[in-house]
Amino acid sequence: MPAHELADQVGACSVFALWFALVVRARPALRRPRQRGLWLTVLAAATAITLFQPRITGPLTDAGLDVHTIALTRNLIGVLSAGLVLLFMVGSTRARRLRLSVLVGLAATMGALLLLDRLQTDHLREASPSLQGPADPASAYWLLLVVAHLAGDAVALVVCWRYSLRTADRDLVWSLRLFAVGSVLAFVFWCGYLWHLCGATPALLPYLSLIIGVHGLVRAASLLVPTATALARTWTALRVTWQLWPLWRDLVAAVPHVALATPRRTRLREVLRPRSPLALQAHRQTIETYDALLDLQQYVQPGAYEEAHRHARRAGVRADRLAAAALAGALGQARRAKLVGTPPSVCRPLPGVVHGSPETLLGIARLWPSMTDALACPSAARRR
C-alpha cells in the first residue's frame, strides 16, 4: 500500500478515535478539574488533526472556504493545543506566576502568528517557503509555529514521564505515558516538518502525515485509559458472576444463612438484572461461596478429598485441574450430606482453600458440574 494511502486511512481512524474518546470522556472529565485539562488538550489536538485530513478539507473548500483560512485556523488551533499542554503540565505545580507566563506566551504567540500571516504576500501564501532563503514574514511564521509545537511537546514529554514514575495510580501512569508517547510522535512530526520547510523532498510528507495520524490514536488512547480500566473491571466482574453462579447457587441452597439474597432462577437473570452493581455482585458471591464452603467443611467425610482426586484422575481430568476437581468432589459430597440431614462432625479443612481466593473458587466452579455427584452420599445408617 502506498504511503499516502496508508497515511489517509490512519488519519481517518485517528480522527474517529479522537472524537469518540472525547465524547465518551466528556461528562466525567469535565466534572473533575484534574482530567478537564487533558480533555481540553485532546479536544484542541483533535480539531487540528481533523482539519489536517484531506477528507475533511476537501468538502470544506467545496463549500466555499479558502484553503489558506483552513490552514491558518488549523495552525492556530495547533498552537492552542500546545499551549494547553503546557497549562495542563504546569497546572499540577499550582504556581500562579508560571501559569500566567504560559497564558501570556500563548496569547503572544497566536497574536504574532496572526500578524505574520497578514504580512505575507499572496505568493508566499500559496506554498510553504524555504527557511534557507532571506528572512521574511512567511519564514518567521513557520519557524514560530514549529518552535511553539516543539517546546510544548518537549515539556510534555519530560513532565509526563517524571510524574508517571512518581504516582501509584495505574490509570494515571498509563495516561501520562501514552501522552508522553504522543508527544514524542508530535515532536518527530514537527522536526520532520521543519526539515521539509528547509527544502527537503516532498516525498517526506506522506510519512509525516502517517506519524501525526498515529499521534492522534495515541492521544485518544491516553484519554480512554479510565474507560478501558472500567470496562476491564466490569468484564472481570461479569465473568466471575457468570462462572461462579452454579457453585454459589448450590452452596447457598445448603447454607442459606450466608446469603444476603436468594439466587435467581437462572444465572442469565442474575447477570442481566443484578440487584447491585456487577463488581459488588461478584464480590458478594465470592464471599458467600467461601462462607458456605467453610460451613460445609464440618460435613466433609474422612478421605473424601483423596477419593475425589483419584476419581478425577481416572476420569481424565487435566493434571493442573486435579486439585480443583478433588475440592469440587469433596465439597459436593459434603453439601449433599448436609441436605440429607447428616449431623456435623469435626471440621476437616480442605487443602488449597486460602482466604476465599477467587481463582480457587472459580477453579472449583469449572469442575463443579462434573464432580458434584462424583462421590457417594454417606449412608443412612452412618447418618444415624
Describe this structure in words.
The chain is elongated, with a radius of gyration of 32 Å. It is built from 15 helices and no strands. The protein is mostly helical. 75% of the residues lie in helices and 0% in strands. Residues 122-136 and 380-384 have low confidence and may be disordered.
What is the structure about, briefly put?
The chain has 384 residues and is mainly alpha-helical. The protein is built from 15 helices and no strands.
Q: How far apart are the termini?
A: 80 Å
Shape: elongated
Low-confidence stretches: 122-136, 380-384
The assigned structural class equals mainly alpha
| Helical content class | over 70%
Helical segment count = 15
Beta-strand content bin:
under 5%
Cα Rg: 32 Å
Mean pLDDT: 83
Major β-sheet annotation: none
The helix/strand series, from N terminus to C terminus, equals HHHHHHHHHHHHHHH
Number of strands: 0
List the helices and strands and how they pair.
Layout lengths: L2 H29 L1 H18 L3 H9 L4 H24 L5 H24 L2 H4 L11 H30 L3 H28 L7 H50 L12 H6 L5 H19 L7 H11 L7 H18 L18 H14 L8 H4 L1
What labels describe this entry?
single chain; 384 residues; mainly alpha; elongated; disordered C terminus
